[in-house]
Amino acid sequence: MENKPIINQDIDGNNPQTTERINKGFWELIYGLGDYLKDMFDLQSDLDRKGTIENIKNNKKMQGANVWLLICSIMVASIGLDINSQAVIIGAMLISPLMSPILGIGLGVGINDQETLVISLKHFGLAIIIALITSILYFYISPYGEITEQIEARTVPTFLDAMVAVFGGLAGIVSSSRLDKSNAIPGVAIATALMPPLCVAGFGIAKGDWNVFLNSFYLFFLNSVFIALTTYSIVRFMRFPYTTYLNKRDKNRTQVLITVFSLIVLIPSAMILYNVWEELDEKDKISTFMIDEFTNENRDYLSHDIRTRDSINYVFIDYYSKTNEIISEEEKLDFEKSLIRCGVENPKVITRGTSNANALLDKELGKLQEDNNRQLNEYAQREALKDQKIRALELKADSLQHATTIKTIVEESKIFLPQLKDIDLVQSRFDDVPILLVKWEDELYSSKVQTDLLYKFVKIKTGMDTLVMATY
Predict the structure, then answer these.
(1) Enclosing H/E stretch for 454
(2) Please, what are the domains in the chain?
(3) Is the separation of the CB atoms in 60 and 116 below 8 Å?
């Protein structure tokens, strides 16, 4: 009997060599996937640090062509906001030169370059002044000058607006730092977060609405800060070299200035973003309270309004009462406690119930309107189906009449033209002139006299003024 080698096995009956190969293959796969993802998201491969610094420094100034481009873009954006046209606003973003000064601010902070930071701040401030003057002049002389949806959308800072600024700034600095630079598309992304709110700030000044001005300028300021901070973060992530100083004293002074500036910029923006988040969270909680707690089987929530006077937030709640139930003072106190948990300080609930008459009438009218719309849709569908059937029957009748006419003409024509084999009447594909197709028993029979006779006979029988004859 042949002796076979004995394979070593562990207690569970597994081959140690097989287990080792599996473990080794698994970790090779993990390491390989890690290397692949690292190469995919690597920002160092085609990085041009020196060229990026020179490019941002050269383009950060607001003078010459940049000033005219800014004026034109602000004017176009203001017109788009005024006529409520999103397409026009997007067109203005394509020519906006606002990207470079903000990238210069982030770069100056990131590489401890005091000169770049100061010049970028100076020209960014100049760009704000030019943009405000341009938009103020436009909205002051505009024949429209009303708050549109596009204007109103730029008066309330939201978290999503901040995200637009963050990713716009990220696209701007990443694109500018490549060997093959392209600033057009990232410039549009940055202009999306900056241009419309800045124009709306000018609208607020022109119309004397300081609330609109403050809200829109806050949005502009917030977005500017996030773009600059994103630029700073990427500059440090990609390890841009710090500026060399002549002595340690100048270096420390610049670092202190940059730190103070960063705190001055960061703290207000963080407060603004926190307030926006709190306001949105409060609105969401109040809406949830109205639907989940206020509404019950006896009443339906309609709307609410909050007005502040003498540090008291009066919450007016309009509702539809399905019965003659009156909300008690105890219930109002419970509602006020719930509103305090929602974030409303010192709430005072005032309920305004609409019982039966008006609300019931509105509700019934709404149902009637829905039923009416449904019936109209069903009627329109029936009419469309009926029209299709009528057209099909008309086409069928026309076809039968045509066939009957042709048959009669053929039978009568053969009485005086026995050599005629067949005729047919068709419509030309290129014009409206009908074509008479004629087939003779023998081409020798198709003399001009016979053809003319048949032509005149068919015109009389069909009543046609124009007819083209062809043999086949």
Answers:
(1) helix 448-462
(2) 49-243 (1.20.1080), 281-359 (3.30.70.1350), 401-471 (3.30.300)
(3) yes
Beta strands at 312-321 and 420-427: parallel, antiparallel or unpaired: unpaired
Residues with Cβ within 8 Å of 12's Cβ and at least 6 positions away in sequence, in order, are: none
8 A C-beta contact, residue 139 and residue 200 = no
User: For residue 89, what is the enclosing H or E element?
Assistant: helix 86-93
Q: Give the sign of the dihedral formed by CA 214, CA 219, CA 223, CA 225.
A: positive
CB 272 within 8 A of CB 119: no
Q: C-alpha dihedral over 379, 383, 385, 386, to 10 degrees? A: 130
Helical H segments across 238-247, by residue range: none
**CA–CA distance, 105 with 235 (Å, rounded to integer):** 11
Say how far apart CA 134 and CA 75 lie, in whole Å. Answer: 7
Rounded to 5°, angle at Cα 157 from 122 and 225? 30
Burial 380-392 (b: 16+ CB within 10 A, else e): eeeeeeeeeeeee
**Which DSSP helix (H) or strand (E) runs through 87?**
helix 86-93
Across 122-136, 164-178, 437-451, which has the greatest mean pLDDT?
A: 122-136
- Partnered with residue 317 across adjacent β-strands are 304, 351
Condensed to tens digits (0 to 9), the pLDDT of residues 33-52 reads 877 777 777 777 777 777 77
Q: How many CB atoms lie within 10 A of CB 445?
A: 14
CB 322 within 8 A of CB 300: yes
**Tens-digit pLDDT profile for residues 74-116:** 998 899 888 888 878 877 777 777 777 888 888 887 887 878 8
Instruction: Give the SS3 label for residue 422.
Output: strand
Interatomic CA distance for residues 25 and 30, integer angstroms:
9
Q: Per the confidence metrics, is the pTM higher than 0.90?
A: no
What single DSSP character describes residue 444? G
- DSSP-assigned letters across all residues of 158-218: -HHHHHHHHHHHHHHHHHHTBSS---HHHHHHHHHHHHHHHHHHHHHHHHT-HHHHHHHHH
- Whether residue 193 contacts residue 127, with contact meaning beta carbons closer than 8 Å, is answered with no
Look at strands 312-321 and 347-355 and give their pairing.
parallel
What is the rounded CA–CA span in Å between residue 281 and residue 275? 10
Write out the two tokens for 338: 């719930």
